[in-house]
Inverse folding.
């Protein structure tokens, strides 16, 4: 069963201080041990703020076009399903940033710390041509500076997403997926999405990654698929 937002919030508040300690011995390890379900559940820390939002946030971000979608979307609530994208199908085409009815897309990047290699040279963070591994703006792949890089201990770095800045462009997703573990990926934030009857991004998605999922399990996690 996928973790609910409450479970994710619980993970974070439980203070998973050093998940990178769980890395396997391979370079840029993929997952933690799959045998310890309790430990795994505890460490399903997606993003500190991404899915821990207050539903009232919706009211602050719905623009005029979004309001129409919001009103229509109330009907969909009755069906108790919401839109979500499958990160295993997504090709990071950038349509998610531009086709949402909201002014700021409801799709944002999340970081699955279970999968992350905590790399010093994160290919989701650094421009391929960056001359040095510093946080200078010109070295960053993200156009909005939404990825926060934090030194943990030699040689590990943690990368966190500021969902207020993320526009869902997927540049980091492509960078991480091409050379890294693919731990950065896109998801519809159900606290932001107004659940349009027909999702405008789904219509524009070239890989048919969007579908309706139960509102009680609104996320599709890559690491869950890995463990199956
Ligand atoms: S590169 Fe794009 S998808 Fe990734 S964090 Fe920045 S704005 Fe979000
Ligand atoms: S249903 Fe699709 S278009 Fe509508 S707000 Fe959600 S992500 Fe955006
Ligand atoms: S439109 Fe589809 S393929 Fe493109 S970024 Fe969004 S989910 Fe990925």
């Amino acid at each position: 069963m996928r973790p609910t937002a409450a479970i994710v919030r619980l993970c974070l508040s439980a203070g998973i201080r050093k998940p990178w300690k769980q890395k396997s011995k391979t370079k840029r390890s993929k997952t933690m041990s799959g045998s310890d379900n309790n430990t795994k559940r505890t460490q399903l820390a997606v993003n500190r703020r991404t899915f821990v939002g207050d539903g009232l946030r919706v009211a602050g971000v719905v623009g005029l076009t979004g309001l129409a979608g919001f009103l229509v979307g109330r009907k969909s609530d009755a069906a108790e399903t919401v839109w979500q994208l499958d990160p295993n199908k997504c090709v990071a085409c950038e349509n998610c940033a531009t086709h949402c009815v909201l002014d700021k897309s409801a799709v944002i990047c999340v970081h699955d710390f279970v999968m992350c290699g905590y790399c010093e040279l994160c290919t989701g963070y650094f421009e391929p041509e960056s001359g040095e591994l510093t946080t200078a703006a010109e070295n960053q792949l993200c156009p909005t500076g939404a990825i926060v890089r934090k030194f943990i201990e030699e040689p590990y770095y943690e990368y966190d997403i500021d969902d207020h800045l993320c526009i869902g462009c997927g540049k980091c997703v492509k960078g991480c997926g091409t050379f890294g573990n693919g731990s950065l990926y896109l998801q519809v934030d159900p606290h932001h999405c107004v659940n349009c009857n027909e999702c405008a991004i789904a219509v524009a998605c070239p890989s048919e990654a969007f579908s309706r999922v139960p509102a009680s399990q609104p996320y599709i996690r890559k690491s869950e698929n890995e463990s199956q």
In short: Strands lie at 81-85, 107-111, 147-153, 156-161, 184-188, 210-214. Residues 22 and 33 are 8 Å apart (CA to CA). DSSP finds eight helices and six strands in the chain.
